[in-house]
């Protein structure tokens, strides 16, 4: 069992605390936050200490850290804190849900946050500081590099390469053997059929409302008229 400090007091930190408490061998002992953002000295009945002094109160030779931050600025904020923690000497844990599907030989880097119902096929490689929300499919022999965010119900087919700092919105789909270039933003509902270029943004067309009201519809079935 490792003694863990979680960075943040946001909903992300609350989720991390819950998952680690109920589905890991780790023991969360404290939270940490940048001094300028501290508004309380306790959270979840545990101490909150400034990130600037955390290594003095919780030395890195005795404690490890987890940084469950969001995808803001295309994951760069999370990456910056990731590197800062490592420079202070902390080892960063990863959390892979026991309810995710993985196979013998699966490995991922540090500070990964992999939620329930992810299907990760054999020979997939996942780098450092990757977040995978629930319900994604990652096809065989795909490589996901560092600092990537994959939201929910994303399909990344086999033999793809995902370069660092990419973002995938809900229900995005990537064709097999596709390279997603560094810092590509794939919006929700987008289908990618060919390699992307760095910093490209893909956005699906929004579904527009019809010209009639829902209370004017007599049937929701095109066959039974039910």
SSE layout and pairings?
Layout: E1 3-7, H1 11-22, E2 27-33, E3 42-43, E4 46-50, H2 54-57, E5 64-66, H3 76-87, E6 95-96, E7 113-114, E8 119-120, E9 125-126, E10 131-132, E11 137-138, E12 143-144, E13 149-150, E14 155-156, E15 161-162, E16 167-168, E17 173-174, E18 179-180, E19 185-186, E20 191-192, E21 201-202
Parallel strand pairs: 1-2, 1-5, 2-4, 6-7, 7-10, 8-11, 9-12, 10-13, 11-14, 12-15, 13-16, 14-17, 15-18, 16-19, 17-20, 19-21
Antiparallel strand pairs: 3-4
Keywords:
single chain; 226 residues; alpha/beta; Rossmann fold; UDP N-Acetylglucosamine Acyltransferase, domain 1; 2 domains; 7-stranded parallel β-sheet; 5-stranded mixed β-sheet; 21 strands; 12% helix; globular
Q: CATH superfamily membership of the largest domain, which one? A: Hexapeptide repeat proteins
Q: Largest sheet, order of strands side by side?
A: 6-7-10-13-16-19-21
User: How many domain regions?
Assistant: 2
The portion of residues assigned to helices is 10-25%
* Largest sheet composition: 7 strands, parallel
Count of alpha and pi helical runs? 3
* Number of DSSP strand runs: 21
Poorly predicted runs = none
Order of helices and strands: EHEEEHEHEEEEEEEEEEEEEEEE
**Cα end-to-end separation:** 56 Å
**What is the highest CATH level, the class of the largest domain?**
Mainly Beta
